[in-house]
Amino acid sequence: MKNLFSLILLVALMTAGNTASYAFSSANNLAMELQDDVVPADNVVSDDATSVGFHQELKKRFIQGGPGFMGIVLLCLILGLAIAIERIIYLNLSTTNSKKLTQEVEDALSSGGVNAAKEVCRNTKGPVASIFYQGLDRADDSLEAAEKAVVAYGGVQMGQLEKNVSWISLFIALAPMLGFMGTVIGMIQAFDKIEAAGDMQPSLVAGGIKVALLTTVFGLVVAIILQVFYNYIIAKIDSIVNDMEDASISLMDLLVKNKK
User: Contact, 77 vs 225, CB < 8 A?
Assistant: First the structure.
């Protein structure tokens, strides 16, 4: 009887041990699965916090720099970008294939005379076509009159290409100067706080200098952005002007050839 009881007790202990072991293993596996599921969620939250934090940080720095000077520098950026985008669109629309236009004018002069060539220029957009039209309009007078008209109207078209570009250069120079002025005023305010406190605390000095330098950083960033657009616009204008000069020489050659 004792042997039977001992055997039953031994089986019961083994069963309980296996059950406990299985429960412990299942708990561990469940915990690992939950941990795996939680980690990506943390990463997503971290990524969202990073993306949101950049905008919040930019907004905070802008407010710390002072709405007065920071707002003026931001206005320089907005106006400068507006003028730059308008000029880029205008210059791209003013770009024409001068070689193709010259060939079409030459064919029109050969087949239909000056009036046909003027009609070709009238139906073509861009400063090169406008210069061609002015030269052809005075081709019946003399070659000298046509040349003077081409040169004079070329100057007019160049003025149209360079319209409002000086404002961009103004904003490029103005943004850093406003930033420096904000920095100087911020330093003065920091020293006023030190004088009022009667003690040069590092936290007070560092906070004032940090806020003062934010306007300089923002002004330099605005100047760098506008400088890139300005250089592109100037390069585009130079390209169009060179194209106009080459096309004007070709037009005078065509008029001389047509006079013979």
Answer: yes
Of 37, 64, 91, the one marking the end of a domain is 64
- How far apart CA 43 and CA 91 sit, in angstroms, is 47
Q: Domain range for residue 152?
A: 68-260
Task: Identify whether residues 118 and 4 lie together within a single domain.
Answer: no
pTM: 0.71
Please check whether residues 256 and 139 belong to one and the same domain.
yes
Nearest-angstrom CA–CA distance, 185 and 204: 16
Token code pair at residue 180: 């420096």
Instruction: Please classify residue 181 by burial: count the beta carbons closer than 10 Å to its beta carbon, then call 0-12 exposed, 13-18 middle and 19+ buried.
Output: middle
On whether both 223 and 121 belong to a single domain, the answer is yes
Cβ 127 vs Cβ 113: under 8 Å: no
What is the torsional sign of CA 40, 45, 49, 51? positive
Phi-psi domain of 116 (left: phi exceeds 0; alpha: psi -120 through 50; beta: other): alpha
Query: Do residue 89 and residue 58 come from a single domain?
Result: no
Q: Are 190 and 212 in contact (CB under 8 A)?
A: yes
Residue count (the chain): 260
* Tokens, residue 171: 């904003």
Report DSSP state, residue 162: T
Examine the fold and report which residue of 19, 36, 64 is the final residue of a domain before the chain moves on: 64
Over residues 142-163, the pLDDT tens digits come to 788 888 888 888 888 889 999 9
